[in-house]
Amino acid sequence: MSTPARKRLMRDFKRLQQDPPAGISGAPQDNNIMLWNAVIFGPDDTPWDGGTFKLTLQFSEDYPNKPPTVRFVSRMFHPNIYADGSICLDILQNQWSPIYDVAAILTSIQRGCLVRTSVTTTGECVKLWSRAGQQTKYCCISVLCRVLKV
Prior knowledge:
Blueprint: H1 4-18, E1 24-29, E2 32-41, E3 52-58, E4 69-72, H2 102-113, H3 122-131, H4 137-148
Antiparallel strand pairs: 1-2, 2-3, 3-4
Helix pairs in contact: 3-4
């Protein structure tokens, strides 16, 4: 069955294959255009430099009028990424627009979450540190060092 959402996702996939943004890849799962796997590589000179971060994107039949549900599968430490992997990013919520395609979504996540961080004070880092597991504390140390310019 070819619905408007599925047609749009096929176009998005074609575009992503033909002109992939740097540090980003994504594709639908076998036999399910509505569920995608994606990878974002940590940008240079950030706390996530050298990291490989896996995500899933779940689209509804309302796409592109409604955003997909996007979650990081890879565990990571970030103030805008919840323990379940869901992402606090305006374009996935109240700033969504049907003009966004999969490439724009992934690029926004890369730039909005992996380049900029909202942790700006030592106190914020300490609060986040206390909630972080052992695996995620490396990134907190990196962020703290950048904040303190150590």
